[in-house]
Amino acid sequence: MFDEDTQSDSGIRLSSPMFYALIVIALALVIGAWTIGYQRGNKAGKEEMSQLVDDQPVVRPMDTGTQPDPIMNQPVVNQPTQNTPTTNPNTNPTPNQANSTAQQPTGAGILSASGYLTSDPREPGLNYLVLATLNAEQAANAISFMYSHSVAVIGVPVVDSRARGANNPSRYTLYSLGVAIPGNQWSAMSSARMQHQRQIADLGARWQAEQRGASDFSQTNWEKFDP
Fold it and tell me: What is the span of the domain harbouring residue 162?
């Protein structure tokens, strides 16, 4: 029955192969039209979605091991709460630290870099260089500074028996123990005397500049110890 010619309403007779060809062409046109429409609709939908997505802020997940820094906008790694020392303790104190006990004199003894002395270390009959007479705090600081530069200095209290608190002197006269000159060698040791005076003046200038010392020890004199 499919081999017979098909007659349309217009009176045109179509053969079976041509009829099937027309059906195939029609189906192809329908499928093509649907495909084109789908592609256009998909493209329009993507463009609309991209516009919506661009208008929204992008939120990124935060690392659970960090905290955001509001200033630098950079993650700050959580640090352990263990207390660690920022500086290493100094087990070997410097001469200034070792002689801190001489910074606040409270008695009437001889002031030295190692503390108070019960007896005067000077030998009778010898001449010692007198640096200056300073208050207790300045004297202690000068003695410590000189000791740190290998010069031994003592502070002899200036006691006024007429004043109140005579057992707690407020002023000390500084003597250098670096050079002691016998009276009979005064001329022979002139070079040593001048050299020691220059050394004391140089250190005095440094003490005054570095630690605001009360004197630069440029006006010194020799004095014979006669207890």
Answer: 96-224
